[in-house]
Amino acid sequence: MDSFIQQLINGITLGGIYALIALGYTMVYGVIQLINFAHGEFFATGGYVGVICLSFFTGLGYMETHPIFCLTASFALAMMYCAYLAIGVEKIAYKPLRKESRLAALLSALGVSIFLSNGLMLTQGVYDKAYPSELFQNGFNVGIITISYLQILIVCLTAVLLVALNLLVFKTKIGMAMRATAQDKTMSALVAIGSNRIISLTFAIGAGLAAAAGIMVGLYYGSVRYDMGFLPGIKAFSAAVLGGIGNITGAMLGGLIIGMVEIFGAGYISGEYKDVFAFIILIGVLYFKPTGIMGENIDDTRV
Amino acid sequence: MIQEFKKIWKQYAITMLWLLGILWPLLGIHPDGTLSFRQTFTVWSYILAGTFICFIFYIINKSDNFKLLTEPIANTSQKLNNSLQSMPSWIWKSALLFGAVIYPIATGRYATDVAINVLLYVSLGLGLYVVVGLAGMLDLGHIAFYGVGAYTYAILNVKYGMGFWVCFPFAGLSACIAGCIVGYPTLKMRGDYLAIVTLGFGEIVRIILNNWMSLTNGPNGILGVKSIGILRPVMENGFTFEMFWVTKLELFYYFALGLAILTIIAVTRLGSSRIGRAWESIREDETAAELMGVNTFYYKLLAYAMGAIFAGFAGALFAARMRFVSPESFTFLESVMLLCMVVLGGMNSIPGIILGVIALIALPEVFRGLESYRMLVFGSTMVIMMLFRPSGLIAAKRKKMMETKQPEERG
Questions:
Q1: Which residue of B has its CA nearest to A37?
Q2: Residue ranges of domains in chain B, CATH in brackets
Q3: Beta carbons within 10 angstroms of residue B65's beta carbon
């Protein structure tokens, strides 16, 4: 039982991270019906910018004196950087192909993904890059369950970001414009919503969330690697599909479920095959209920 | 000219400034708490110079200033093309074949090695062509079938001592079964979802190969796979046969060539058959195809199975050539590279795919020094091809349909 609760806590941590990445997929898919293959690379880039910023602050010596400030600044910088990256990528590689066939856009996205991960490799090196200090690694024990402060931080921060996103999408004018664009581009253009701006914004928000997830993963596992975006990207996509692609609440839920399944699968079934579970869920969902658990009706261009 | 392309220039300038902003945090912030700009500027100026030259060419090309240069080339190639077409096709075909046959004799061992790689990838790429080019389904896990074929031969050979020629059909068969297994649940989907699921399937296969220690020996791979054996007649003390192992690279080349030619013929004929037209109709518009009575599910599954079979054959040959298989050879990157070859050359044309394979296998061999930039170039090539020439280097020509006679009016 104790180990069950321990696994549950680990699962929630991992699930939160997947949920953050999945949101980017689902939002972009909702707006322009494109699987953004490069999204996993935004996540990896976020992790790298995080480690660059944190080691920079450590080098300056601020890390001992103002750790909270440094961490906040790193998160903010990484999220901004990835948003900037994503806007540019969208303008260069996706926007000209919006009218072309979906295969072309998908291949272009795949090309961007390879380009970015190899760009990271060339600028940052092939080897793992370690996060500078043992931030929040210690924790407290409840019985034999260990909860690290880092896990609490990750879960809290994830919750804050998710709530903020929900407020943005469902309570503000910008969010309304985003939902309108997702539903009908022509119609929303007629009521004076600039769809290009909304698409850029969607990419920026998605990449920002992915960057936050990237730093969390870096802190949680202690290092980042240039190709770390690939597997979490696919798993997060599975989460988005599981939740019903295009549905924000669904992506959050899906992320949590995928995270749980992975942790429990690794704990109780087989650790070696832990990466397979997400794919099996993906295939199963697409086969039996392609709309996902929260999905709306989808037209035949999607499935 | 500047006025004319003002907008493009502006876009180019903005892109380059954006790139500078992207590069600086990655190169200019150091862990010892210092900031630097020189390295960023050096890298950036290289990129600027490179892209600027391409950009100038693009502008000149756009403004038709290249006409003077390209027109004679286009004319001669047109003439050449015409004369080629007026010539019976067997002449240039046999010339090509002759060239391919004398190739290992004329060149060295290293060149033959590269050529074998090219030929194996031609079979693989044509398998993918059936799935992506003809049936229009994006497959990101094609290399998994290659892996299944290679492992089938390796396991049957090492564990059960079966020879190459017995295993060869089995390798195709098991890859075909794998294709059906992945195809059956996924073919209800279209486009994007299919791409992700095939990617997932490819990863599942790799993970299984990596972890099923008792069967595949895990990450260590299987050593000691036997090469191809052929029986050759011996005249000493009566007429007997003797087992002869193909160990020489030059001989192996001919087997790879044989497989590639077989694949080319098979795929060409498949493409122009009734099945091929059904695939193309599915690619163009699935709903319409279904309305016209094409059994879309069956044909899509068939496309998968066909593509997988060729990959499986190539895999068996690969295992026999390397005499070693390991999951390392069948990663996602290989799938992407294969897809890149197909896209680069032209998704819908067989000569295009062969050109793409040669370009992406042989060119990196020539530029060995720039090895680490290879994938970077692949990635950007894919984006650039999609932006400027989505149909590939050699675009497919639509086959002219046979003139259909108007049905006679019935009284």
A1: B196
A2: 6-66 (no CATH), 95-388 (1.10.3470)
A3: 12
Angle at A214 between CA A211 and CA A217, to 5 degrees: 155
Q: Any idea how long chain A is? A: 303
Chain B residues whose CB is inside 8 A of the A124 CB are 26
A93: tokens are 């590689």
Q: What is the pLDDT along chain A (303 residues), one digit of tens a residue?
A: 678 888 888 899 999 999 999 998 888 888 888 888 899 999 999 999 999 998 888 888 877 788 888 889 999 999 999 999 999 999 988 988 888 777 788 888 989 998 998 899 888 888 888 887 666 667 777 777 778 888 888 889 899 998 999 899 889 998 899 888 888 888 888 988 888 899 999 999 999 999 999 999 998 888 888 888 888 888 898 898 888 888 888 888 999 999 999 998 888 887 778 888 888 888 888 777 777 777 665 544 443
- Of A88, A103, A123, nearest to B138 by CB-CB distance is A103
Is A33:A293 a contact under the CB 8 Å cutoff? no
Residue B162, both tokens: 């079966």
Long-range contacts of A157-160 (CB under 8 A, 24+ apart): A157/A75, A157/A212, A157/A216, A158/A16, A158/A17, A158/A19, A158/A20, A158/A216, A159/A16
Long-range contact pairs involving B5-11 (C-beta distance under 8 Å, separation at least 24): B5/B59, B5/B62, B5/B63, B8/B59
CA distance linking residue B348 with residue A186, whole number of Å: 33
Is there a contact between A107 and B386 if contact means CB atoms under 8 Å apart?
yes
| B204 interfacial to chain A (CB closer than 8 Å) | yes
Hey, is the C-beta of B386 within 8 angstroms of any chain A C-beta? yes
Find the closest chain B residue to A91 by CA distance.
Answer: B15
Report the b/e string of B295-309 with b at 16+ CB within 10 A: ebeebbbbbbbbbbb
Q: Using DSSP, state whether B301 is helix, strand or coil.
A: helix
Is B138 near chain A, with CB under 8 Å? Answer: yes
**Could you tell me if the ipTM is greater than 0.90?**
no
Give the start-to-end residue ranges of the domains of chain A: 14-229
Helix %, strand %, coil % of chain B (to 5): 75, 5, 20
Q: Which of residues 139-198 of B touch A (CB under 8 A)?
A: 140, 185-186, 188-193, 195-197
From CA A277, how far away is CA A12, in angstroms rounded?
A: 16
pTM, two decimal places: 0.86
